[in-house]
């Protein structure tokens, strides 16, 4: 039988071919993102997509190309194997430890930023220095975002990068 004569019904269904069923978890992007302390907005910014698209991609049953999975891997800074579902295993100990240290550092930096008491600020600074000794990459981490924090004037966000169609400004029938 040639490809030209091959009908869809003769190929078989997705499970027979080897594709995972749509109700089967394929990845754990959302779990890893939350454990890494990264927001959907940050992921969306790095992937140049909308937050709603990030939410859709995070659905464990969403099927995506490997190239997109590797883009997520770069944003989350974890091995790509950590993003795939593998017999319901938890995250590997090194990745779990990194996520815990990252969250701890964000909390310490938030305390330093919010406290007005010098002794508490000093203790938080000491703790931050000790965390950087353990994991030098924590030096570039920022504190947790405060609720309602406003953007600075030089923070344009994704809206500035998107183009609007000229047709948007014309009335229908013009």
Would you kindly provide a brief summary of this structure?
The chain has helices spanning 8-11, 14-17, 29-36, 40-47, 51-58, 66-76, 93-114, 118-134. It is mainly α and 174 residues long. Helix 4 crosses helix 5 (51-58) and helix 7 runs antiparallel to helix 8.
SSE inventory with pairings:
Elements: H1 8-11, H2 14-17, H3 29-36, H4 40-47, H5 51-58, H6 66-76, H7 93-114, H8 118-134
What structural class results from the helix and strand content?
mainly alpha
Helix content: 40-55%
How would the global form be characterised? flat
Q: Find the CATH superfamily of the largest domain.
A: lambda repressor-like DNA-binding domains
Average of the residue pLDDT scores? 77
Query: What is the total tally of β strands?
Result: 0
Textual characterization of the structure:
The structure is a single chain. The chain has 174 residues and is mainly α. It folds into 2 domains: 21-89, Orthogonal Bundle (434 Repressor (Amino-terminal Domain)), CATH 1.10.260.40; 92-144. The protein has 8 helices and no strands. It has helices at residues 8-11, 14-17, 29-36, 40-47, 51-58, 66-76, 93-114, 118-134. Helix 4 crosses helix 5. The longest helix has 22 residues, at 93-114. The protein is flat. It starts with 7 loop residues before the first helix and ends in a 40-residue tail after the last helix. The model is unreliable at 1-21 (pLDDT under 50).
Keywords:
174 residues, mainly alpha, 434 Repressor (Amino-terminal Domain), 2 domains, 8 helices, disordered N terminus
């Amino acid at each position: 039988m040639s490809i030209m004569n091959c009908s869809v019904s003769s190929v078989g269904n997705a499970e027979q071919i080897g594709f995972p069923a749509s109700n089967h978890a394929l990845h754990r992007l959302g779990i890893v993102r939350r454990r890494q302390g990264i927001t959907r907005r940050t992921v969306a910014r790095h992937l140049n997509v909308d937050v709603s698209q990030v939410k859709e991609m995070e659905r464990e049953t969403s099927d995506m190309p490997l190239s997109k999975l590797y883009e997520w891997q770069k944003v989350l800074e974890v091995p790509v194997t950590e993003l795939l579902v593998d017999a319901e295993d938890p995250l590997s100990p090194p990745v779990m430890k990194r996520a815990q240290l990252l969250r701890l550092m964000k909390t310490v930096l938030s305390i330093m930023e919010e406290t007005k008491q010098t002794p508490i600020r000093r203790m938080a600074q000491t703790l931050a220095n000790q965390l950087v000794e353990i994991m030098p990459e924590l030096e570039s981490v920022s504190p947790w975002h405060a609720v309602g924090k406003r953007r600075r004037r030089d923070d344009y966000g994704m809206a500035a990068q998107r183009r609007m169609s000229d047709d948007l400004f014309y009335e229908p029938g013009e």
